[in-house]
Amino acid sequence: MNTITLLAAFAVFCPGGEKVCDVTPPSLGEGAVIETTNLVGAVAWRIRFEGDGERVVENEEWTFDFGADLRCWPVSHAQGEYVPKTLSTIAEMAPRPGFAPVAAGIGEMHNYATSYPGTAEGPLVVEGAGFVAAIGDAGCLDYSRIRFASGAGKGQVKTLLEGTSKVHAPYTTPWRYIHVAKDAASLANAQPGVMDALNAPSRIADTSWIRPGKVLRVAKLSTDCAKDAVDFVRRNGMQYIELDCGWYGQEHTGDPLKPGLAPERVAKGEKFDFFEILRYAREKDVGVILYVNREPLKKNRDAILDRLVEWGVKGVKYGFVNVGSQEWRKWVTDAIAAAAERRLLVDIHDEYRLTGIQKTYPNVMTVEGIRGNEEMPDAAHDCALPFTRYLDGPGDYTPCWKNARVKNTLAHQLALPCVYTSGWQFLFWYSRPDQIDESNPALDFWRRLPVSFDETRFLQGEIGKFAVVARRKGNVWFVGAINAGQARTIVLPLGFAGNGTCKVWLCRDADPAAVRGCAPVADETLEVDSLSVNCAANGGFAAIVEPRTE
User: Fold this and answer.
1) What is the 3-state secondary structure (H, E, C) of 274-334?
2) How far apart are CA 248 and CA 240, in angstroms?
3) 437: which of 2, 21, 153, 376 is 20 to 30 A away, CA to CA?
4) By CB neighbour count within 10 A (0-12 exposed, 13-18 middle, 19+ buried), where does 401 fall?
C-alpha cells in the first residue's frame, strides 16, 4: 500500500496501455492523505484523516474524465432498471415517482433513502473503445455511500456523498476504486477478487454454521401451506422455508415477540399455528427464515433476535431498511453483526446493496438491492445485471416458475439461479407447492444445482444482450445462459470442462420463436465438445456438463 498527497491526480490505463481516464481528487484540507493500492486491473484509494478529534465531511468529489461522452449503465436507485445512457445524461435521471415515501399505516415512511435526482448508484459501468470499466466503493460499513453525477465536461463523471459523514480521527474512509477490463465477461470474472481485496477479513471466527441454500417462501401464511412448503423443500433438494411479512401481524407495527396473524385475518377464519410450523420444519430438518421489518427492529432488535434463537430459527430477513446515509449504513452493519453474534444468517431486502461486507460478515447470504421478479423486469435488464449490479455481490432476484407476468421465457428463468450469484436462492417466487408440476423434467436442473460452487466463470456476454455463466462443483459444470432482444444462436465450446467430448444434459427453449411466458422447455442429452443452442429472443438455456469418462 502506498500513501500519496491529496494534491496528486492520476491516470488509469487499459491493460493494453491506452488511457481510460484521469482521476482528480477532492480537496479536504489539512490532516488528510490518500492511501492507494494497486490490484490486477484495478486501482483503489481511500482517505485517511490523521490527528485527533472530530471531523465532518460535507462531500467527497472525485472527478473521472474519460475524454468522451461514453456509454454507461446507471440506475437512479437500487431497484431501478438498467438502460444504457451516456455520462452526460446521468444528469437527466430521476428515481421512479413515489419510490422513496411509502405509506406504511403509520404515516409517510421513507423506506429507502433520500432521493437524489440527476445521480446514479454505484457501481457505475462505463464502456469505451476496447475496455469496460466499473467505478464504485468497497468496505462501506459506517460511512455515507457515494453516488455519481455528470461532471462539467461531457466525458466527466463525479462523486458525491449521500449526506455528511462525521468521523473521529484517526479514521479511514471506505475504498473507492476503478476496475478496467477488456470486456464485460472479463470484468465480471475479476471483480470478486477486487472486492475481496478491499474488504476486512471475517470477524466471525467459527463459520461452520453458515450454510447457503435454496429457499421456498411460504406464499400463503397458513399452517397447511407452510407444512406443504416444508415437504416440497424436502422432496426437491432445497434447504429452507421463509415466512414473509404477516407472521406477526402488520409488519410495520406488529410485535415479532408475539407471533400470529393480524386480527382481521383471524376474523376471516385463516389458521396459522406458528409454533406448529416451527416444530414440523425442525422434525423434517428444514431451516426456517423469518422476515422482520425495520420498525420493530428499531425498537427491540436484540430481544427479537434473541427470541429467534430460542425458537431455533436459522436466519432473519431484514425488511425496508433505510440506506445511504452514514447513520443507516452503520445501523445495518450493527444489525448484521448482532445476527452474527447469535449465529443467525441474514438476508436484507429493499434498497440495500453490498460493498463487500459479506467477506467481513459471511453470515450475509444475500440482499435485494435489485430490480428482480417483484417488479418483473424485461430480459434486457436481466442481461445487464451480471455485468453491473452483481459486481457488488449477491442479489436476491427471486426466480419464478410458470408465472404469466414474467417477461421472458421459462428457459430464461430456469437459468437465472446459475447466472446470478446468491448464497440463498429464493426459487418459485409467488408459487405454492400445489401450483408446481414437479414432474416437469426441466426442474431437475434446480434440484441438482448446488448451493455453493468451487469455481465460477463468465464465459460470454454483452451488457444488456446476453450472458453465459458456468459454475463448477467437483468435476461437474452447471451452465446458465440468458438472452434478450432478438433470437440468438449461442455457440459454446466446452473446453472449460475438460478435453474431448462431454456428456451434456441441456434444457432449452422448445420454441426459439417464443417471446415470453410459459412455453415448454425441451431437454435432451448429448455427447459433444461444443454446444450450439438457438435461444428465443428473451430466452436462454441451462445445462449440466460432465467430462466423459472412458
Assistant:
1) HHHHHHHHHHCCCEEEEEEEHHHHHHHHHHHHHHHHHCCCCEEEEECCCCCCHHHHHHHHH
2) 19
3) 376
4) buried
Q: What's the predicted TM-score (pTM) here?
A: 0.95
Q: Among 386, 368, 329, which Cα is nearest to 134's? A: 386
Q: How far is Cα 210 from Cα 173, in angstroms, rounded to an integer?
A: 29
Contact 395, 236 (CB under 8 A): no
Taking the CB of residue 18, how many other CB atoms lie within 10 A of it? 12
101 prior amide bond cis, ω within 30: no
Residue 7: which H helix or E strand, with range?
Answer: none
Instruction: Tell me the residue type at 258.
Output: K
Q: What would the pLDDT profile of 322-379 be if each residue is shown by its tens digit? A: 888 999 999 999 999 999 999 999 999 989 999 999 999 999 999 999 999 999 999 9
Strands 63-65 and 530-535: unpaired
Written as one letter, the residue type at 316 is V
Looking at residue 91, its amino acid is A
Q: CA torsion 422→427→429→432, rounded to 10°?
A: -150
Please give the distance of CA 267 from its chain centroid, rounded to a whole number. Answer: 39
- E-strand ranges in 62-199 read 63-65, 71-73, 85-86, 101-103, 108-110, 119-120, 124-128, 131-138, 146-150, 156-161, 165-172, 175-181
Q: Which helix (H) or strand (E) holds 473?
A: strand 466-473
Strand intervals (E) in 5-123: 10-13, 19-24, 32-39, 42-57, 63-65, 71-73, 85-86, 101-103, 108-110, 119-120
Could you read off the pLDDT of 525-545 as tens digits, one per residue? Answer: 999 999 999 999 999 999 999
Q: What SS3 class is residue 118? A: coil
Cis peptide before 97 (omega within 30 of 0): no
Classified as helix, coil or strand, 96 is coil
Give the three-class secondary structure for 49.
Answer: strand
Mapped onto helix, strand or coil, the DSSP state of residue 64 is: strand
In sequence order, the β-bridge partners of residue 109 are 102
Helices 326-341 and 294-310 cross at an angle (nearest 10°) of 10
Whole-number Å distance between alpha carbons of 480 and 467:
8
Phi, psi of 177 (to 5 degrees): -145, 160
- Amino acid found at 88: S
